[in-house]
Amino acid sequence: MAAIESAEEQVLLGLLRAAVGKAENIHTLLTDRQPDWERLLCLAQSHAVSAVLYDVLETCPDVPADCMKRLQKETQEVVLANYRLLFLTSYLVAYLGRHGITAVTLKGAVTAALYPVPEYRKSGDVDLLIPLEADRERALQLLLQAGFQTAGQQLALHHVSLKNAEGITVELHHTLTEPFDDQRVNQYLERLLAEYGRHIVKNKTWGLELTEPADAYHAFYLVLHMLQHFLREGFGLKNLCDWTLFWNREVGEEEKQRFLELLEQSGTGQFVRVLTAACVLQMGLSQEKAAFLQTETVPGELVQAFLQEVLEAGEFGRAQTDRMVAMRGSGVSAYVREFQHQMHLNFPEAGRIVVCWPFLWALTLARFLHNNRRLRRASLRNIIKKAGRRSLLVEQLRLFQ
């Protein structure tokens, strides 16, 4: 796949490098590339990184005044939303803690704490992991007693979605991710849950106490979160910023070693090597600090293809309507395996009964066609074509091997 050619993509990457701490001559970057500012800001918005650019561009005379005003408005909205999420997260962790329940904060405020200005990392909800199975139902009941309501339609298998009176979503996680199409990996991740309850630290970056996973487990959750979205619609540059900032800090050798063990046991090492190489190449991740992650040489063409995939996707793949899934393999067998996997995701209980499969296949297809027509409005042909093209990239990542 070709190198990044769009002026707006090149400038956005340069601005993000500067935002995460790498020396970058912004005036030269803008003069040389001369981006279309409307397209640049729309691109930043699609990747949920508009606010991250604010301090970099605030004193730059090259930015049109109307664009800077728009960026300021978006940044203010992100900052205010983040404070609402922060205080709610802190309250819920303490509230559940008083009842003897450990709630581990995933992403959100604890990942934002990695940023030079934590308020600039955009978040949309509160994610709390309840590691112990015995605590999960009680945690749900406590939130209901506190005024939360369960969302009308629960679309995920790995968490329960609730909303408070202000409409803020809280996701109570009982597993780390949606099931992958590899039972061995799913069982491994299930066994790993208890470790997330034992390996926790207190984060006081914001001035409030939050509970987060220890570094190895924090980084591994970032990997799982990216991978889950990568195998569906995709993920954007915000996640590359997270990864760069996480490893550009000082991380203890014991945590690094444990993280490598997690990668080996889950079969996600090649995915992380490609991810890391992409961040070194374009995001300002220190080659020296990332060296321990790069245990194999990654082909440059694969890194470029991965970066292009991320750039095309935007946050959660919302930049393109024909993104729905990327398969682990190619050919008819890969499509069949993915369809079977989607059937089990849609009908986890009934899917255990083999004689029901023909009926469930029909329902899965009907649901897919209905949702696609109502929500995405992309042609079936384009969706299948895009899935096939993305699957060629996934194949090179050697997932779960």
Question: Which descriptors would you attach to this protein?
Answer:
401 residues, alpha+beta, five-stranded mixed β-sheet, 17 helices, 57% helix, 6% strand, globular
Task: Provide structural commentary.
The chain has 17 helices and 7 strands. It is α+β, with helices and mostly antiparallel strands and 401 residues long. Helix content is 57%, strand content 6%. The strands form 2 sheets. The protein has a 5-stranded mixed beta sheet with strand order 1-2-5-4-3. A two-stranded antiparallel sheet has the order 6-7. The protein has helices at 7-19, 26-33, 37-46, 54-58, 65-98, 108-112, 133-145, 183-198, 215-230, 237-247, 253-266, 269-282, 287-290, 300-313, 332-346, 357-376, 380-395, and strands at residues 104-105, 126-129, 149-150, 159-163, 169-173, 200-203, 210-213. Helix 1 packs antiparallel against helix 2 (26-33), helix 9 runs parallel beside helix 11 (253-266) and helix 12 crosses helix 14. The protein is globular and about 65 Å long.
- How big is the Rg? 21 Å
How large a portion of the residues is in β-strands, by DSSP E?
5-15%
Structural class: alpha+beta
Helix content: 55-70%
Number of strands: 7
Question: Overall 3D geometry?
Answer: globular
Unreliable parts: none
Number of helices: 17
Spell the H/E element sequence: HHHHHEHEHEEEHEEHHHHHHHHH
Biggest sheet overview: 5 strands, mixed
Distance between the termini: 25 Å
- Mean pLDDT across the residues is 87
Strand order of the main beta sheet, please? 1-2-5-4-3
